[in-house]
Amino acid sequence: MEVQEVTHKPLFEGEPIYSMWLRELIRFSAMRSRILATFASPLIWLLFLGIPLSQIFASGGASQSVPGGLPFFAFIVPGIVSMGLLFGGTNSGVTVLWDKEFGFLKEVMVAPVRRTSLMIGRSLGALTIALIQALATIGIALILGTWLGFRIISVAGFFLAMGFMIITFFAFVGFGLTLGALIENTEGFMTIVRMLEFPMFFLSGALLPLTVIKGIPVLYQLQFINPLTYGVDGVRGLLTGVFLLPAWLDLTVIVAFALLFLFLGAYAFSRMEVD
Question: CA separation (Å) from 87 to 59, 201, 233?
Fold first, then answer.
């Protein structure tokens, strides 16, 4: 009687993860408009939102409402960095739909590799692009900060902030992949994501201190059940030294949210049917 040898797939599959990561970077480098947007977007936000708002806060005598006595420009920079992490993470779900529509997803999913490896590779590729944009934002802000008061408190704080950015990004890439695996078409995905992204962004303390809307009960409370609030506060605190919330709370909430949605994203991705 012939005994068939059973082979088990390794838990960590380096080659498919690397291949999917490299594919994301090649797609990024081949799209000049996307490269331009990666560097132009933070410049536009900083020039046309950060600088005018900082002048309004200074001239209106509202600078005392900025926590820790931060210049308003220094306050808003981590918020713009976190915006890129939010949009980049959630939009990773739409690439799943594009690949599904063009047939690429079907081709890779019939390969003898774990679907989670494909998801990890895609996520790491999107993370690399998001970190490039985050570094570009910080670099531009440091140049403008010579006049507007933004500086990084320490080298250690910078690297810790990078780690916090990675956790924050994975929280929202899991969220985006979960939606991308569950929603059938690109139009529906983009509609739902935009409906969720902007309230999360504006109610996160990214642009204004959390206390500014304290007199509006529902909106004020929504800030504290918004996971991006904790991501923004963690990045801001590590870069500037000023936390609005306890640092341990920021880390606990964003790690819990990342683990939850990475698990849900992996599960939805593994169960997704490709015609």
Answer: 32, 9, 17
